[in-house]
């Protein structure tokens, strides 16, 4: 029987990493909040000096709201995909004719669970950068690599789905 087990490594990792990175993001947000000056420089001019400021409480509540909203929306999307019959994923089923539709659906759901992991990791990096930019000792560091890290995380997430689907074993019980 080539059906994936109920608890595949993808299933386990996607859920555990999502919870772990969400908790890490919450802890990071609390520690970064504690270390930020009030007001916080959120925009920097050509000289590298802050020229746009926000109260740190506003940043905290704004980020907490964005994190909560993003996670709720992603979970709603996942719950919606879970309700779709496996045979209704026609585009993926046509692309991977030799794979079982149930396995394709399970991989897609696991893939969606990995999306908040990438977002959480990137937000942790952004929060750490915000703290460093507001510290006189580290203000002159180069943080131009930050957008590239976000792009790499997004590309890894995007590549995961086709790579994982291609690695699925062929189904013997295709109609």
Write the layout of secondary structure elements.
Blueprint: H1 9-35, E1 40-44, E2 50-54, H2 56-83, H3 90-95, H4 101-133, H5 146-166
Antiparallel strand pairs: 1-2
Helix pairs in contact: 1-2, 1-4, 2-4, 4-5
Radius of gyration: 21 Å
Classify the secondary structure makeup into a structural class: mainly alpha
**How many alpha or pi helices?**
5
Output mean pLDDT.
85
How many strand segments? 2
* Percent range of helical residues: 55-70%
- Which consecutive residue ranges, at least 5 long each, have pLDDT under 50? 1-5
**SSE pattern:** HEEHHHH
Summarize the structure.
The protein has 175 residues and is mostly helical. It has a two-stranded antiparallel sheet with strand order 1-2.
Question: What does this molecule look like?
Answer:
Helix 1 packs parallel to helix 4 and helix 4 runs antiparallel to helix 5. This protein is mainly alpha-helical. The protein has a two-stranded antiparallel sheet with strand order 1-2. The N terminus is likely disordered. The protein starts with 8 loop residues before the first helix and ends in a 9-residue tail after the last helix. It has 5 helices and 2 strands. The protein has one domain.
Which tags fit this structure?
disordered N terminus, two-stranded antiparallel sheet, 5 helices
């Amino acid at each position: 029987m080539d059906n994936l087990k109920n608890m595949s490594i993808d299933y386990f990792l996607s859920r555990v990493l999502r919870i772990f990175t969400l908790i890490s993001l919450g802890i990071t947000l609390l520690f970064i909040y504690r270390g930020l000056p009030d007001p916080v420089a959120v925009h920097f001019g050509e000289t590298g000096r802050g020229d746009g400021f926000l109260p740190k409480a506003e940043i905290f509540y704004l980020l907490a709201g964005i994190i909560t909203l993003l996670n709720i929306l992603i979970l709603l999307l996942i719950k919606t995909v879970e309700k779709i019959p496996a045979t209704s994923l026609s585009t993926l089923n046509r692309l991977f004719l030799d794979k079982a539709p149930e396995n394709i659906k399970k991989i897609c759901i696991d893939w969606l669970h990995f999306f908040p992991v990438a977002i959480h990791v990137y937000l942790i990096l952004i929060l750490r950068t915000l703290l460093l930019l507001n510290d006189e000792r580290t203000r002159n560091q180069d943080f131009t690599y930050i957008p590239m890290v976000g792009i790499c995380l997004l590309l890894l997430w995007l590549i995961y789905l086709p790579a994982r689907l291609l690695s699925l074993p062929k189904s013997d019980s295709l109609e």
